[in-house]
Amino acid sequence: MRAKLALILLAIGFGVLGAAQPVVIATSEVLGSLARTIGGEEVLVITIIPAGFCPAHYDLRPSDFLHLAQAKLVLYHGIEPWMDRLLANVNPQALAIKLGGPWNYPEALAGKAEAVAEALTKILPEKAELFGERLSSFLRDLESLSQEIQVRAGELKLSTIPAIVMLWQESFARWLGLNIVATYPPEERLSVRDLAELAQKGWENGVKLVIDNLQSGVSFGGRLAQAIGATHVVLTNFPGPIPGTVDMLAMLRVNANLVFAAVESVQAVPTP
Questions:
Q1: CA Rg, the chain, in Å?
Q2: How far apart are CA 220 and CA 157, in angstroms?
Q3: What is the distance between the alpha carbons of residues 198 and 59, in angstroms, rounded to a whole number?
Q4: Are the CB atoms for 35 and 26 separated by under 8 Å?
Q5: Residue 231, SS3?
Q6: Which of 39, 50, 76, 111 could form a Cys-Cys staple with 27, CB 3.0–4.6 A?
Q7: Is CATH 3.40.50.1980 the right assignment for the domain spanning 158-268?
Q8: pTM here?
Q9: pLDDT tens digit sequence for 138-164
Q10: Contacting residues for 131 by C-beta, under 8 A, at least 6 apart
Q11: Which CATH number fits domain 2-148: 3.90.230.10, 1.10.10.60, 3.40.50.1980, 3.90.1150.10?
Q12: What is the pLDDT of residue 148?
């Protein structure tokens, strides 16, 4: 395995990056966005998984081996099935930080940002004060956005809106205050029977929204929404794939606005 990886690295030009700054590898744009925000020009951040892709379903490219081999710091979620073995063979000297758990609501995102700042400080301790300042600025912006979203959620009385939610969006939906009637896993785990059971719950509880996660597939949620006459809302857990989701703060805002727009549409329909 080691010999094969060495040949791959040689073939694609090992050392071609020649970066003056320490190379920071982030497996997803979630972590890459945070590393760029806090690390700034002091580090070269490379995200190896394209925006919008889930790390658990990504197939490595030859260039990824090169990038990982040059990394000083690697930030990953822990859901990448290839990460531990790959690092052990390609770059065992890299500082690898696993940042598990959710990130799609403010409290969780703040924790991820703090962990990224701490990791960056470990490879560039002389920049600790600068990283701390950037972290503080990010957290202030996050808190401001959080308050803005919560105010709007309260105005729309989201707690009165019954919803069925894809599991990977449950934390965000609960933070918004939606009345979650049921959740469902990725669609590859679901059957026609599951659809019928969830539809029954939807009818019984007057569900108005079905909230899906783009990276997990959206056909099941679409069929469920159609079956119960609910509005289908597709959110993203990664920056990039939905217009306007250029970074983590923008992603939170866009996801919230998609839910708000759906609720406003529902509320605009006269009750029979």
A1: 21
A2: 27
A3: 33
A4: yes
A5: strand
A6: 76
A7: yes
A8: 0.89
A9: 999 999 999 999 999 999 999 999 999
A10: 38, 39, 42, 117, 120, 121, 124
A11: 3.40.50.1980
A12: 98
